[in-house]
Structure formats: C-alpha cells, structure tokens
Amino acid sequence: MLGILKRNRIKKLRAELAETQKLASHFYKMKQDAEERAFVELCDLSIRMGAGPDAAAKTQQGIDILADVVLNRQYAFYLNEKAIQIYSQIFLLEKRRGTHDREEWLNEVVKKSGWEVVSSELPLICADLIEEAKERLSDG
Predict the structure, then answer these.
(1) pLDDT tens per residue, range 56-82
(2) In angstroms, rounded to a whole number, what is the distance separating the alpha carbons of residues 95 and 97?
(3) 63 touches 119 (CB < 8 A)
(4) Strand, helix or coil at 58?
(5) Nearest Cα to Cα of residue 116 among 80, 85, 89, 86
(6) Which of 38, 55, 35 is nearest to 46 (CA)?
(7) Quick one: how far is CA 46 from the chain centroid?
(8) Does the structure show a pLDDT above 60 at 1?
(9) What CA–CA distance (Å, rounded) separates 58 from 60?
(10) Residue 19: domain span
(11) Rounded CA gap, 2 and 22, in Å?
(12) In terms of pTM, does the model score above 0.85?
C-alpha cells in the first residue's frame, strides 16, 4: 500500500515539476521581450519629459516600466527555485535519503531540475564573463 502511495506522490510531483519548468521557461523567454518593451517605453518617456533616461527612470512611470522587467526576472527565478524544491522531494522519495553533500545536491538535484530552464539563458547571463575570458586569453 505504501508503495502505491509513494508512486502516486512521485507521479503528482513529476507533473507539478513539468508544469513549473514549462512556466519557468516561458518567463525566461519573456524576459527579453519585457526588456525590449521597457527599453522602448523608457526612451519614449524620456523624450516626452525632455529629460535623460536616468531621470525618466526615477519617475513613478519609469519605475513602473522597469518594475515589469525586474518582476518578470524574479518570477522566473522563483519558478526555477520551485522546480528545484519539487525535484528535491522526488529525490528524497526515490532515493529514500537526502543528499550527502553540497556537490551531490548540485549535481543530482539542482542541475537535473533546473538545467533545461537556464541552459538557454547562459549566453545572456554570462555574456560579460565570456567576453572577459576572451579578452584575457587574447592578451596572452
């Protein structure tokens, strides 16, 4: 009886995980759209005000424009963290134990639950790091 309950619980968690990962991917993809929309709206606001973008960003309307970008990004991060927590529950049920150390947690839980979602974000999030590495290596 316990085996059936455990399998049903894992099945429900896997469905919840899939839905959460799907939502997280969607919000990561929408991040670029939100940033582009905010860029255009901030430029328009700046022109209407006759002030620079930094001054426009400090107005209530500017804050509202930029808040959409920040909230979209934070929600994507939240969903990815939620996926990690769900997968942690699955791991615990399947392995009948928690992780032994930080490395196992990273490799067996975090990467397995979040990799698909964030892998498309690596070039964008790490662009500066990649560019700095290229510069360092080209300097010899």
Answers:
(1) 999 999 999 999 999 998 998 899 999
(2) 5
(3) no
(4) coil
(5) 80
(6) 55
(7) 30
(8) no
(9) 7
(10) 2-139
(11) 30
(12) no
